Amino acid sequence: MSETIFSKIIRGEIPCHKVYEDDHVLAFLDIGPLSRGHTLVIPKEPAATLDALSDESAAALGRVLPRLCRAVMKATGASAYNVLQNNGALAHQAVFHVHFHIIPKPDERQGLGVGWPTRPIDHGDAAALAAQLRDALG
Ligand code: 5GP
User: Which CATH architecture has domain 5-113?
Assistant: First the structure.
């Protein structure tokens, strides 16, 4: 995959407000926060989207994400937050290096605004789709 701004941050060529680092993961404050404490958590592996990430990096991210959420809550005083992970330009991804957003939701006005246009499930289609998904998992 191509070089992104996050590769430069990992290498220390671009500064960031670092929150956490280990062999596989880096966390730092978002430069355009939706609320105070908006934190990005990224693997050091340069995968563009989550589906392209190795099990090792995924496990390292999963291990540390809850701890980072607790730290963001403790430091900001927020008790609500969203964890957001965008894949693909259509899904609002702007930087093509996997990243999780931890976004405190201190009140109605700040943080992530979510549209959730649900429809009732079609059970006929759902049965076929679940079978397809099990198949795809192999
Ligand atoms: P996406 O829409 O791809 O999920 O979000 C990318 C995020 O990266 C945005 O929230 C944006 O503010 C953040 N971002 C982009 N460039 C930089 C940067 O150079 N430094 C930091 N700290 N955050 C960045």
Answer: 2-Layer Sandwich (3.30)
Nearest CA to ligand 1 atom 4: 93
Residues 17-69 pLDDT 10s: 999 999 999 999 999 999 999 999 999 999 999 999 999 999 999 999 999 99
> 31: Cβ below 6 Å to ligand 1?
yes
User: Which own/partner contact pairs does 112-120 have at CB distance under 8 Å and 24+ positions apart?
Assistant: 112/34, 112/82, 112/84, 114/82
The residue from 92, 99, 101, 123 that is catalytic is 99
User: What residue type is assigned to position 36 of the chain?
Assistant: R
Closest CA to 42 of 9, 78, 3, 89: 9
Ligand 1 pocket, residue 48 CB under 6 Å: no
Query: pTM higher than 0.70, yes or no?
Result: yes
